[in-house]
Backbone:
């Protein structure tokens, strides 16, 4: 479980990126962070793993306060936080398997990581994860030979190779087509439920968030202005987050996408029954 209490971030310029943000993410829950550019979504995620130093507040992962952790303790905590990036952050000249195994770099001695000689248990787990994300046949391919959706699946497997207690996910579908975006979001949700993993996803696509996350937190000017179930994100809530707009078309798109997703799931179930 992740608990954030009165988190604030003020830069030296005086700009306040976060103002008294508080919420809890339960085990297995997928939370979508939405809001306009500059609302503080990326800052919030980066404060959680201390890539950005918070000004004040608490960030509790279990009983450990990340905000006050020493450097040595922070290294240990970061091993338990899986990060999935918008631009994948893969080493393109390495194979898919080598990229997944890089999730174990915080756990193995330097000589093993330098020579890329990982324990067999780590290798076996990496193969199992590649199977889970649908990339078993791509284990020996270089990362630069993959499509965007395949690269994101490698990023998911690499994060899981860490045995994380929390997933932080920054715009996982920004570079993907609509169909692949739905597949990736569905996969993230399924994995979090299977592993009872809490996750925070920074996402611009409100329709996609409503389809696949358990809960939505809306930020505006560094403050939480909405926190609730996706189906309670009505026009008033959207206006509070983004400002005045006609939200009718967005709702039509959401309903159309939901129908497509339902049809895709039904087709997958039919194909699975024939296998």
Residues:
């Amino acid at each position: 479980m992740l608990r954030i209490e009165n988190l604030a971030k003020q830069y030296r310029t005086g700009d306040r990126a976060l103002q008294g943000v508080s919420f809890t993410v339960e085990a297995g829950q997928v939370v979508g962070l939405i809001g306009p550019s500059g609302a503080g979504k990326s800052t919030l995620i980066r404060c959680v793993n201390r890539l950005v130093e918070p000004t004040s507040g608490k960030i509790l992962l279990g009983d450990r306060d990340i905000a006050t952790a020493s450097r040595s303790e922070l290294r240990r905590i970061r091993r338990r936080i899986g990060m999935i990036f918008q631009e994948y952050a893969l080493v393109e000249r390495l194979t898919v398997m080598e990229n997944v195994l890089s999730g174990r770099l915080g756990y193995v001695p330097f000589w093993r990581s330098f020579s890329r000689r990982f324990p067999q248990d780590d290798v076996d787990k990496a193969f199992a994860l590649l199977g889970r994300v649908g990339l078993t046949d791509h284990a020996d391919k270089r990362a630069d030979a993959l499509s965007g959706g395949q690269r994101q699946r490698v990023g998911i497997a690499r994060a899981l190779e860490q045995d994380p207690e929390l997933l932080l996910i920054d715009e996982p579908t920004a570079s993907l087509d609509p169909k692949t975006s739905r597949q990736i979001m569905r996969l993230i949700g399924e994995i979090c439920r299977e592993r009872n993993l809490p996750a925070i996803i920074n996402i611009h696509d409100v329709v996609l968030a409503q389809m696949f996350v358990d809960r939505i937190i809306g930020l505006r000017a560094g403050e939480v202005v909405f926190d609730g179930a996706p189906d309670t994100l009505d026009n008033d809530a959207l206006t509070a987050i983004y400002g005045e707009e006609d939200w009718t078309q967005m709702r039509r798109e959401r309903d159309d996408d939901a129908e497509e997703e339902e049809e895709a799931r039904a087709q997958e179930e039919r194909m699975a029954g024939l296998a």
Q: What stands out?
A: The chain has a mean pLDDT of 88. The first strand starts at residue 2 and ends at 10.
